[in-house]
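User: Reviewer 2 asked us to show a designed sequence for the structure in our supplementary figure. I'm pasting the structure tokens here. Could you produce the per-position amino acids so we can include them in the response letter?
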């Protein structure tokens, strides 16, 4: 497979192609579809976080908290998917990385949701 240099660092398409091939899924559409779905989920998370920031700046903390939660939830779904894949494909280093992101997402939610608990008015 031709090596592609992208601004994102690793060539995830060739990496996923290798992973899926290792378990007998040779169809190149599977990693492409997988990356497309992940990309869309990452965009959805970005939208939630951007809307949350908008509400936060405009002092609507209840809506900001809700949108931030949806962004965190989307991030957790993404990293859970990656962590499951890391276990299936035996990638320990990637599993550690994705587990750290997963944990930091939960920690971010906890800090955000408890920082303004009095102001939000549960």
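Assistant: Here is a per-position design you can include in the supplement:
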């Amino acid at each position: 497979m031709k090596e592609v240099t992208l601004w994102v660092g690793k060539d995830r398409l060739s990496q996923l192609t290798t992973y899926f091939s290792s378990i007998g899924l040779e169809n190149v559409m599977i990693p492409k579809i997988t990356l497309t779905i992940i990309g869309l989920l990452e965009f959805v998370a970005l939208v939630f976080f951007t809307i949350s920031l908008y509400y936060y700046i405009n002092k609507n903390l209840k809506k900001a908290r809700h949108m931030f939660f949806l962004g965190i939830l989307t991030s957790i779904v993404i990293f859970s998917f990656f962590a499951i894949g890391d276990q299936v494909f035996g990638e320990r280093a990637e599993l550690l990385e994705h587990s750290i992101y997963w944990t930091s997402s939960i920690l971010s939610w906890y800090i955000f949701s408890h920082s303004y608990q009095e102001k939000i008015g549960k």
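For the response letter, you might also mention the following. The CA atoms of residues 80 and 102 lie 7 Å apart. The two ends are 54 Å apart (CA to CA).
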